[in-house]
What we know:
Elements: H1 2-7, H2 33-47, H3 54-74, E1 76-78, E2 88-90, H4 92-95, H5 100-106, H6 109-129, H7 134-165, H8 170-181, H9 184-195, H10 197-200, H11 206-221, H12 232-248, H13 255-274, H14 298-313, H15 315-321, H16 325-336, H17 338-356, H18 372-411
Amino acid sequence: MTGRMLDTPRPAAPAAPRPARSRRPRTPPLPSLPARVGAAARRLHAATPPERDRAVDALRAWAILGVVLGHWLVTALVVPDGSRPVLHTASPLQYLPGLAPISWVFQTLAVFFLVSGHVTTRGRLSAQARGVGYGPWLRRRLSRLFRPVAAVLVLWAVVAVALLLGGADPGTVRTLVKLALSPLWFLLVLAALTAATPLLTRLHPVWPLAVVLHVDLLRFGFGAPGRLGWINLPAGWLVPFTLGAAWTRGELCGRRAGWALLAGGAAATAGLVVLAGYPASMVGVPGATVSNLNPPTLAAVTFGLAQCGLALLLREPLRRAMRRPLAWAAVALANLSAMTVFLWHQTALMATTATGLLAGRLPGLHTLPDRPGWLAARLAWLPVFALALTVCWAAFHGWERTAGRRERRAAHPGADDASHPRVDG
C-alpha cells in the first residue's frame, strides 16, 4: 500500500502567472513617397479655383520647357584639343543642317508671347475693373519680372571678376557671360510690350506683321542696311502678343481660327524657306549669314503664327488633361518657378560643362558637335543639366516667389500661392 502510494504521480503545481506586458501603441507606417505626392497633388487640385483656365498654365509651361530643352540641345561649349580651358560656342545645326527640325519643335517663344499677351491684357482689364491705376499695376508687373534678374546679374558679375583675376582667358569669360545673360533680351522685349499693353489691347496682329514684311522686303529685296532688321525685334514678337490680346477679346474662341493660323503659318513658312531662301532653322546658327531669330525674320513670325494656331487647338485637350491632379501639380509647379528656370538654365549648362573639365574633354559636353554621335551623347547629359538646374532653383527660386507672392496678395487678398500659380509674363 505504501509502495503504491509512493508510485502515484503527484499533480503538478500550478504555473505562476506571467506579469502582463505593457503594450505600446503601434506607430502607423509612414505613407510611401508616391502616396504623399498623390495626396499633395489632390490637395492642390481641390484648392485651385474651378474657373481657372488651366490650359493657359499648361501652354506657358510647354513654352518654357521648349526653350530650355532647345538651348541644351543646340548649345555646345567646345574645348579645343591640347589647350588650356578656352571655351567657344558651337551648334550641331552648324555642322548637321539636317537637324533643323529640332528647332521647329523647341523654338516656342511665340507660344510664350501668345500666353503673355492674353494674360497681361486680361490682367490689365481686371485691374481697371478693381480701380487699380496703370502705374501701380505696371510697377507690380515689372517688379515681379525683374526681381529674379538681380540674383543672376550679381552672381555673374562676381564670377566674371573672379575668373579674370584668376587668369582665365578673356574670350572665355566673355563667352560665358554672354551665354548666361542671353535670356535678358527676351525680358526686355516682354517688359516693353507689357508697358504698352493699354495701347495694344485693340491692335490687330496684321499691323505688326506688315511691319515685319516690309522690313524684310527692304533688307533682302532692296539691299537696305542690315541694322534695319532690329525693328523686327519688337514688331515680330508683337504679332503673337496681339494675338493673345485678341484671345482676351474672345476673337479666337473657335477652332477655325486655330486651323487657319496653323495651316496659313505653316504654308507661308514653307514657301519662304523653299522659294525665298530663308534659313530652315528657326534659331540662330553660328556663322550663318542670316538668322531667323536675331533679329526675327518674316519666316520666324509666320512659323510663330503656326505655333500659335497649334496652341489654340490644344486648349481643350489640355483642359481635359489638367483635370488629372498629378498633371496639374506638375504644371502649377513649373509656372511657380518659370522665371527661375528660364534665367538659370544656361548657368546650369555651363556649371556642368566646367565641372566636367575635371575629367577631361567629354563627348557631348566639350567636343565639337559635328557628328550624329554628339547628339546622342548630349541627350545623355540632359539629366545632369536638369540636376544642376535643380540646385540653381533651390538656391534662387525665393527671389521669384517673394515678388510673385506680393502681387498675388495685392490682387487676391488671402490667396494661396499653390492655388494661384503664375501664368502671366
